[in-house]
Design goal:
Radius of gyration: 23 Å
Largest sheet: 5 strands, antiparallel
Helix content: 40-55%
Shape: elongated
Number of strands: 11
Strand order of the largest sheet: 6-7-8-5-9
Distance between the termini: 33 Å
Order of helices and strands: EEEEHHEHEEEHHEEEHHHHHH
Structural class: alpha+beta
């Protein structure tokens, strides 16, 4: 275990070993490199740059797409987050102005949304509110003018919110290359509108670890093992990332051309019901799928000695 190291680059040797070069000039070698270094992944940049060189040598046009995915991109959203101790809002709770939810509550509106949920055994409330532009704190608060009183009652209790610029990673053509594999935000950093980024990272690690610990996995079969990981996890996590994006569109009515101001109450109720049903449908993968399904297929492929 080596601490206080930041990777600068890596090189695949003819022997099959991978040499790692760190920013302090030190080096190390490994048989397989797993890049779990986040949205600004150095491993991803190196992997894609090497793939781009191969593409140029082959004379195809894939190089520009590969290089464009090296760096993360700003999604166009900023999120203000804060924690509220329950005792701070007890007076509002007693007065009936606020009610701490048992799970989570999502407030939606044009170009903005806010979500809150209890944490720390119900002793605190976590709140996150996003706005689709770059604004100062006062502008962000004013962006919720006209929203229901409960939203303002929550927001006014946040003393020191933190501001997060939401960055994502463009869809990648591969998560693996020559003994190198990407996991988590390094390969599929996504918007937070399904709360699934961290969960997908854990699934990546579990999936890859299960394949690597399989009895048939050896240094000679690593290429096939990583190919199976890539085919299974890239398809699934890319779909989750897309669903998270779609949820954000629903929450902020970003692609909704319906006239919520000029419509009747009945028309608005009908439209909101449709949006609610679409959001529910977009969440169904969480309730009706498990990683065990795809992992079982991958393990069978690995045991059979087949690629995917």
């Amino acid at each position: 275990m080596h601490y206080s190291k930041r990777l600068a680059s890596y090189t695949k040797l003819r022997s099959g070993k991978i040499i790692l070069v760190f920013q302090d000039g030190s080096t190390s070698t490994c048989d397989i490199l797993v890049g779990a270094d986040g949205v600004r992944s150095v491993v991803r940049r190196n992997l894609l740059e090497k793939e781009a060189v191969k593409a140029i040598e082959k004379g195809n046009t894939e190089a520009s797409r590969l290089l464009a995915a090296c760096a993360p991109v700003w999604h166009g959203t900023e999120i203000y987050r804060g924690l509220i101790p329950i005792e701070k809002i007890q007076a509002d709770i007693n007065a009936g102005l606020l009610k701490v939810p048992a799970n989570s509550i999502q407030f939606v509106g044009k170009n903005a949304n806010a979500m809150l949920y209890p944490i720390a055994n119900g002793t605190m409330v976590n709140i996150a509110a996003s706005y689709v532009t770059s604004v100062e704190l006062t502008e962000w608060l004013s962006a919720f003018d006209g929203w229901e009183p409960q939203v303002h009652a929550w927001l006014r209790h946040i003393e020191k919110p933190t501001k997060w610029a939401v960055h994502t990673v463009r869809p990648l053509p591969t998560f693996v290359s020559e003994g190198v594999a990407l996991v988590g935000d390094a390969d599929h950093a996504m918007v937070p509108h399904q709360g699934s980024g961290g969960g997908q990272a854990i699934e990546d690690a579990y999936f890859l670890g299960s394949l690597l610990s399989h009895p048939s996995t050896t240094k000679e079969t690593l290429t096939r093992v990583l190919s199976i990981y890539d085919q299974c996890r890239r398809r699934f996590s890319t779909d989750v990332a897309n669903r998270s994006f779609i949820n954000g569109q629903y929450y902020t009515f970003a692609s909704d051309q319906f006239d919520y101001i000029g419509c009747t109450v009945e028309e608005k109720a009908t439209r909101l019901k449709e949006v609610g049903e679409a959001i529910t449908t977009n969440w169904e993968w969480v309730w009706f799928t498990t990683i065990d399904e795809s992992l079982g297929v991958a393990m069978d492929e690995l045991a059979a000695g087949n690629g995917m």
